[in-house]
Amino acid sequence: MIALFVSLNFFLNGDPFSISFATEKGNAAAALAAARRVLDDFVANGPTDAALAQAKANLTGCFPLRFDPNAELTGYLTQMGFGTLPADYFERYPAEVAKLSTDDIKNAWQRRLQAGRLNVITVGAP
After folding, report:
1. Fewer CB within 10 Å of terminal CB in the chain, N or C?
2. Are strands 17-20 and 7-10 parallel, antiparallel or unpaired?
3. Rounded to whole angstroms, how far apart are CA atoms 9 and 71?
4. Rounded-to-integer distance, Cα 52 and Cα 42, Å
């Protein structure tokens, strides 16, 4: 069994992005292969309807928690004031998330991710 602890981070311009995980040293090669299979499948096929529904519920359900404490709210208001977020961001974000389809997600990943341009960095011997 491979234990993966995965985080996925996107950067401001949409690329690059990173996937990172930790596993036991003896599982490193298998874990990396599993991560590549999952990524390749997701890019090729996109999310399932159920996975997208769950992601939408998570993104919109947790959305108000992004503004607690007040320092977080102030950060968003500052971004809105300087134009890096639209003035209607608080209303627009949940509505935009709700409109997304599985094809939208799949097409975005296929446009942005080029499998031949991936770099793999390992810490320790795989």
Report:
1. N
2. antiparallel
3. 22
4. 12
C-alpha–C-alpha distance, residues 108 and 104, integer Å? 6
The single-letter code of the amino acid at 65 is L
Q: Which sign, positive or negative, has the C-alpha torsion 22, 49, 16, 14?
A: negative
- Strand, helix or coil for residue 20: strand
Cα–Cα distances in angstroms (integers) from residue 6 to residues 21, 61, 78, 87, in the given order: 5, 22, 31, 33
Question: What DSSP element (H or E) covers 10?
Answer: strand 7-10
46: phi > 0 → left, psi -120 to 50 → alpha, else beta; which? left
The residue type of 120 is V
pTM of the model: 0.70
pLDDT one-digit tens code per residue, 2-32? 444 444 555 555 556 677 778 888 888 888 8
